[in-house]
Design brief:
Number of strands: 0
CATH topology: Glycerol uptake facilitator protein
Distance between the termini: 47 Å
Shape: globular
CATH architecture: Up-down Bundle
Number of domains: 1
CATH class: Mainly Alpha
Structural class: mainly alpha
CATH superfamily: Glycerol uptake facilitator protein
Largest sheet: none
Strand content: under 5%
Helix content: over 70%
């Protein structure tokens, strides 16, 4: 990736963030306000929707911008020197703008049910849910770093399944994304979060991400990683010698 952010990269981050937020908000509005489903059914539908959409978005945009769609992912990519500081800042701005646009478009689709294009949420998400955001952000960032490190070819489906699964397995329903959190402050649907809790969520997400990055760096610290590589090489040499001696 170049140090300078291109129009295509910024567009990819903004559009991807927009559709990710639309998946998260529209599915909740559809099931709670239109279908009048039980909240448990709505959360299940939301998890499936977000998993499917995120998988597709990563597949489509990863070759353009890296498909971050998440400021904390961009932050750790900056730490890894995969993006420069200026590019990271621009990515985050465009992610937030895309997310807010996604909220507005989601509510516009269901305007007769929600009443306005944007509305500040009063949905309380506090106490133990804060801890859920640390866990959610930790596993998301850690798995993302590991997948990139191992050059996995299954990043889209792995991250999609992870997010969908953790959405049903964390007390906060796994926001794990500051731009999504900001976008969800602007809907008074079941997907919303009041700004006070939202800003705490963002702090927890940053903490979880930094912890994940710290653990990742510890695992792949230079000495540990090089020793591991040497062990693998030594074993391969031994296997080759044994094979030659038998032939």
């Amino acid at each position: 990736m170049t140090k300078q952010a291109s129009i295509s990269e910024l567009s990819a981050e903004s559009i991807g963030s927009m559709f990710l937020v639309m998946a998260a908000i529209s599915s909740m509005i559809l099931f709670t306000s239109v279908f009048e489903s039980d909240k448990s059914i709505a959360v299940l539908a939301n998890a499936i929707t977000v998993a499917f959409v995120l998988c597709a978005l990563i597949e489509v945009f990863s070759s353009i911008s890296g498909a971050h769609f998440n400021p904390v992912v961009t932050l750790v990519m900056m730490f890894e020197k995969k993006v420069g500081a200026v590019k990271a800042m621009l990515f985050i701005i465009f992610q937030i703008v895309g997310g807010i646009t996604g909220t507005a478009l989601s509510r516009l689709m269901f305007l007769s049910d929600v009443g306005s294009v944007l509305a500040v949420s009063d949905t309380v998400r506090n106490d133990y849910m804060y801890l859920g955001e640390i866990f959610g952000a930790f596993i998301l960032v850690f798995v993302t770093l590991m997948l990139i490190k191992t050059k996995s070819s299954k990043i889209p489906i792995t991250v999609g399944f992870l997010v969908g699964g953790q959405l049903m397995a964390t007390s906060s329903t796994m926001f794990a994304n500051p731009q999504v959190t900001i976008a969800r402050m602007l809907t008074n649907s079941a997907a919303g979060i009041r700004p006070l809790d939202g800003f705490v969520f963002i702090v927890m997400q940053i903490i979880g991400s930094l912890l994940a990055y710290g653990v990742y760096r510890l695992i792949f610290s230079k000495n540990t990683y090089e020793t591991g590589e040497e062990d693998v090489l030594r074993k391969r040499v031994c296997v080759s010698k044994n094979h030659l001696s038998k032939s």
